[in-house]
Amino acid sequence: MSTQTTTRRKVANALFGLLAFLAIFASLVTLVALLFDVVVRGGSSVDLQFFTSAPSRIPAKAGILPALVGTLWVTTLVAIMTFPIGVAAAIYLEEYAGRGRWSRLLRINISNLAGVPSIVYGIFGLALFVRLLGLGRTVFAAALTLSLLILPVVIISSMEAIRAVPPSQREAAYALGATRWQMVRRALLPAAAPGILTGIVLAVGRAVGETAPLILIGAVTFVTFVPVNPFEDKYTVLPIQIFNWAGRPQAAFQEISAAAILVLLVLMFLLNLVAVILRARLSRTIQW
Amino acid sequence: MAGVSTAHRPDSAATTRRGEALIEFLLRASAAIGIITTVGIVTVLLVEAIFFFAEVSPVDFFTGTRWSASILPYAFGVIPLITSTLMIAFIALVLAVPLGVLAAVWMSEFASQRVRSIIKPVLEILAGIPTIVYGFFAITVITPLLKATILPDLGTFSALSAGIVVGILVLPLVASLTEDALRAVPRGLREGSYALGATRWETVRRVLLPAALSGIAAAVILAMSRAVGETMAVVLAAGTNPQLTLNPTESVQTMTAFIVQISLGDTPTESIQFKALFAVGATLFAITFTLNLISAWLVARYRNVYE
After folding, report:
1. Is the CB of A243 less than 8 angstroms away from the CB of B132?
2. Does A122 touch chain B (CB under 8 A)?
């Protein structure tokens, strides 16, 4: 009797372990299937002509040049805008704000903002930047909208990086007579830099792949030229180009859509690689 | 050079103090952008929604069961958009919650440190893939696969495909938040259970899952919020056909898909359709905001218990 229950318990345990493993395995299979699908479908369309041509009604002649340039424009502007503001906000919340009601409100607000659907940011950007401030459907309006979207992510990850710096670093700086800002600039920021930069690069990666808000900011137009002036020119970005092609029924368009996805994923992979290298480089110099 | 040496001079103390005050002001202003954004979003949605409700009564909007923004006669009853959104979110959760929780249990209780260090980045990669790519995956793989196996009559667009792909998309979120919740359970509880002779499965079922319940619930609700707000995957997989149905094989239109549809066309900004975009956006924001608050409250609860 008791050996029977023991056996049953052991079998149940083994079955559960297997089931839990299968759950993880299913995720791995999905990732492999997704990448396999994109590579098989789009791999052969990625050639030099694909990078140097504008979109066309003939799939074989179509390329991603305007979209790629648009993505690089938007990404660069987003990085430039979110870096100082995100880090400054994180410094304030971690080092200046204390633990009062006001700072609690700020913190709760940031984490709530991180959960707002991206399309809602698009609606906000459309109303504020495109219409109220009259920026029009431009790269600049898109970059402002995406900056607001990733700012909470940048702030949260920078706060974590700052919090990870041991208090002894701060106290040592103060003991040498540093003011608060001197302490932040000379002791805290260098120590927190690897974490901060990694977080920013990853957040910018998110902006690269965002699609929905940019549909509202007007990045859907059929753009056949390379945007030069971010404040005036019409533009498109890679995810929008992918969306545009993916929605068409012809298989040829799906192939170039897959090819554009491939380029987008490689771009994001490169960003991640930068994050990894930055972290390794910067953290080597710090020893606690 | 000059910046370094000024600190020594006695007359520069006032300058330093002023500099410190200026810097603190700048930092504070940066932190306030979050608040400004929230206030801005709420104001924009409310003001524009009021313009819409001047033309369509809120009662008709919230209780109407027919949505037709592009075909006459126009009707703006939001119920079909909400039910479609919830149906897709429900399918997604049915898939993502069991798999995500099991995956989390495996990572936190079964996997060795080495295996976990391989699996975690894979889940992070899955979480980092843009949702437009998942949408593409739905139309090129999931829908054809469903057609070829169990549902030969499935159309190009369906709530089922959308639900499945959104499920795949939120699975990493469920898994990583559940893992956090499981890790927050004190070691003592696990060891107590093993000391009583329990197997791993018994420990998971009788001790860990009950102890981590509020954390898991928070993960599920946050996943639901993500699923409700998900746009690109749903637009590509479920289509833009607003109808009141609970049949997952039908093409439907979610709240987000309607917003995309209006933005894509050349809808005049003064038209009722364009104003409806804001009313639907406000409804979407209210739903996700409420879900996020509940989730944050649940997380705070398990933090209070164990930390």
Report:
1. yes
2. yes
Q: Residue A103 corresponds to which tokens in the numbers above?
A: 């700072």
Judged against a pLDDT cut of 90, whether residue B88 lies above it is answered with yes
For residue B277, the chain A residue with the least C-alpha distance is A123
Give the closest residue to A237 by CA, choosing from A115, A96, A72. A72
CB contact under 8 A, B136 and A38: yes
B209 part of a folded domain: yes
B234 vs A: CB within 8 A: no
Instruction: Please say whether the beta carbons of A226 and B146 come within 8 A.
Output: no
Quote the ipTM score: 0.88
Distance (Å, whole) CA A48 – CA B257: 35
CA–CA gap between residue B163 and residue A174 (Å, rounded): 55
Report the distance separating Cα B91 and Cα A15, nearest Å. Answer: 26
pLDDT band for position B306 (cuts 50, 70, 90): low
The mean pLDDT value for A133-139 works out to 85
- Identify whether residues A166 and A253 lie together within a single domain: yes
In a domain, B157, yes or no: yes
Longest CA pairwise span in chain A (Å): 81
Task: Pinpoint the alpha helices (H) of chain B.
Answer: 2-5, 13-53, 58-63, 79-105, 113-128, 131-137, 143-149, 159-183, 187-195, 200-203, 209-211, 213-229, 232-238, 255-264, 272-306
Within this chain, do residues A31 and A81 fall inside the same structural domain, yes or no? no
| Interface contact A106-B35, CB threshold 8 A | yes
Contacts A–B by Cβ distance under 8 A = 248
The listed range with the strongest mean pLDDT (B166-170, B199-203, B244-248, B267-271) is: B166-170
Residues A150 and A182 in one domain: yes
Q: Which residues of A touch B230 (CB under 8 A)?
A: 117
Identify whether residues A28 and A89 lie together within a single domain.
Answer: no
Tokens 């746009």 belong to B231
Q: How many domains does chain A contain in total?
A: 2
A179: domain range? Answer: 50-284
- For residue B115, what are its two tokens? 């295996």
Q: Does B122 touch chain A (CB under 8 A)?
A: yes
- Here the tokens at position B179 are 């893992």
Task: Give the DSSP H or E segment for B67.
Answer: strand B67-68
Co-location of A197 and A150 in the same domain: yes
Please check whether residues A169 and A228 belong to one and the same domain.
yes
> B276 is in which domain, residue-wise?
72-306
Q: Is residue B47 part of a domain?
A: no
Report the number of distinct structural domains present in chain B.
Answer: 1
Residues A78 and A188 in one domain: yes
Roughly how many angstroms between the first and final C-alpha of chain B, as a whole number?
48
Instruction: Say yes or no: A31 and A58 in one domain.
Output: no
pLDDT of B248 reads 86
